[in-house]
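Board work, copied verbatim: Cysteine protease RIM13
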Amino acid sequence: MNEWHEFNSVIKSIYCNAKDDSSNTIKNLVNLAIKSDDSTFIKAVLVLKENISKIDKQTRFLWLTSTVNSKFYPPIPISEASPLSWNNNEYCLPGSEELQRRYPDRITLQNEKNYTGGIEQCQDVTDCSIVASLINLRAQNLELPPTKQISSNKYQVNLCFNGSDKRLVTVDISQIPTSVDGEQLSLRSKDITDKVSELALLLVSQGTYSTNGSNISTDTFYLSGFLPEIVQPNDYPFEKLWEFFKSSLCLMGVGSGNRSNDLIKPLVANHDYSIIDINYESRLLKLRDPRNSASNIEITYEQYLSNFKQLYLNWNHEKIFRYSQTLHFRYDAVRYSKFAIIAGKPLFQIVNNSKVTETVWLLLESHLLNEDRERIESISFVNEAPLCIVYPIEAPVDRGGTHTGMQLVKLKLGSEAEKLLYCHSTTNNNFSIHFFSVAKEIYFRKLNNTDGLVANVTFSPLHETDKKTSFDTCNFFQNPTFELEVYSEKDQQIFMDVTCVSTSFRDLVNVQVYYLDDYELVKPIMFDNHYEPGQIVKQEVPILTNSKYLLVCSTYGTPVSSEFQLVTSTRFSSSWRLISRIGLRSINLIYGSYPYQFHTNFHWKKNFNRIKIPIALQTKKYATNKLFVRIVPVESSAHLRIRCNIFELESSLCVYECQEYRSCPPGGIVISNLEITRISTIVLMIEKDVSIFNESTKKGNMDELELYVGSNQKIEIEQYSDYVTQQ
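↓ predict structure ↓
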């Protein structure tokens, strides 16, 4: 067995460690195979050697997610598996103290060859869903799951979980809890492989005989890989149920749920039953109670509707579809669920390249985790994305799959149509999406690169201020600002969706879009004066590719949350493929993006309407000074109108002229990209309109202004002087 020890060690290392050089270890295994008389070992080595070059990230993901509750279940078919165990112990514990007291002994699993009844549940193990699943499989003469005896006390079973239908589970049957009168914690069957299958699934999903309960659809999937579907009893009419049953394409069962008060006898609450026959003429359904192999219960369709909460279907996908594909991925709730919008979720694309309408099915499978056996309450689902993907997520109609970790989605795609899907989960988990189609021309993939579809920036309020900064104030420019540019090979007009979202619905948020050179913020594109709680969405904003835009995010009042997100997205259509990247980054244009920055407050003295501020510039030969000037009143007022002019100090030559008085826009009055050469000192003169400014209209503190100056070189702003010009 030493050669198998070496094989297990090597295969785990190769599949789980991407960077290790495996050439020498493979050579050693091949040498062992040459000397070996074990045909199974020789075959396993040859298969491993052939598959090394085919190992990709998805295959490695399967191996790295093989540990469940501290036990390792590799994706290896039993025909290629080592006869050695992968884990130290491979049997279920009794669980509760009551079971330990009633079943004190540990002996080998009994082989009941002389038992004449059908498969029957042990009364002390609440696994009716597992037993009902096995009843359904045997009724269709299906020898699933694959099982092989490897020693007198050990079996290997291939179960379907964590993205693979070949999870290798070894079961030790020598430690079965047994009562003093010989009763065991095991189902009854004349075929010991039924007992082994039950033990294998209990070991993986529970680890003990004290189960938390499950359902037929989920357990049938684990045992066979048949696609689980959970629906309401009235989702399908009687004729459809009969059609499903006679087609032999699916296995069927029902669950009573917690409706104990109105159940007809002998039905009981919180119990699953197999559907073993449906009679079209009498409209009767025959149920099999897993607790009693002699109990077949006939009910009418109307009784079926009024006594059961769930209909369980498991579809044999190999009979329905010709092609299948599986994608595996990790869902990080911190990354994907902080802002519950579609664009921030894992995205998937389906394209129908055939000439006719096609049906596709997807199964979202939540992985069993290497964590405590206490079930974590979780909701997970896949849903079709709308055209605008900056909207909040929307859960599909819940038929039971979103809470059980198994959601079956059925879609129709027209010829050459495509769909965008997204995945959501309330907890961290690994997932597999199993994809099925009849036609080969259906394309399914995870969008790992969404640079041409969506861009986002997470931010906190950038400018510490106790002032109101909504767009109806002159402090609006102090809000977080961002540069947007959509890159494409050719210039074209496209439509963008934009959203600003907070982690708190107490924040009233708004987002505005401007051209990047609109420093005064006077010409918003599709202006919207509404502030919305938690999130605002601006749809179909027309922009030109390869042009720069400015986005301003604001709150109405002091922000409650310390974390916000700005998301921009194109529409999921053929045009997004022409976009190479959406560029979105935080910028600060208060000083016009210049490195040297100066800020001060100033005011007019009483009865004066003019102020002059000297600015000393660099005087190096051929030096060009570039300036950005922003003047903003401390408080907004419709009555305050000002104008700004710039002169050379020595010659009084006008460098920048503005003759008209202006009301102050949301970004203040801005003089941008002013270039001055060979001038040592300039004077910024600011005047207010005397004709409309008088004591009767004066409100608030309109005597005080703020000055922001940005420059490409170091400057000095001297103490300003008040010119005596009486009003």
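DSSP finds 13 helices and 41 strands in the chain.
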